[in-house]
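Re: that chain you flagged

S.,

Sorry for the slow reply, it's been a week of failed gels. I finally had a moment to sit down with the sequence you sent. For the record, here it is as I used it:
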Amino acid sequence: MNTAAMPVTPPRLRVLVATTNAGKKAELAALFEKGPIELVFPESLNSVEESGATYAENAALKAKALATERGAYALADDSGLEVEALSGAPGVRSARYAGEAATDQQNRKKLLEEMRRRPPAYRKARFVCAMVLVSPAGETLQTSEGECSGRINTEERGEGGFGYDPIFWFPDLGKTMAEISDAEKNRISHRAKAAEKLLRSVRTLAAQGRIPLANV
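Prediction finished late last night. Pasting the structure tokens below so you have them in one place:
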């Protein structure tokens, strides 16, 4: 067989992902599907206390713990919802807004109750995401951030997404984040923007010889 003319699949950097959130796994898999990074989702992860004051600090804590434990490149993201009328809350505590073991539904319910006390004009909000890529030695190679703006709806709408998606309203689209398609979400979301920046940075790091990746 003549293999000279056969297309060569470019090498991809194998990166472990520090998350157990099924919604995040699905989004990240789609966002990195065709890029220079091959994401691997470990079946089990050790618990890491998210004690950082920022999304980037929390993402770094999770990524470094996984990288040094497994001796591999690792990626983590931390994200949250910031509501103007609540002075940026729930922020880094978005996943724990209604308590340490709160469900997504409990967090949404608490936020909707808080917002009922505020005038309709004060419903501006934004999603923020930080991603951190770490070397097997625990060195932070790249941090990227993304955000998207909207408003807090008066009720839940939509069956898609996860977290606060059913109450995050896009005025220009007339839909909540839970009502738009997965493809559309992966174009405009905070996580999509952070991923796009990270992938650009990975190509730069590869060109500089800082990560073992070619043909990017």
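What I noticed first: The chain has a mean pLDDT of 92.

Talk soon,
D.
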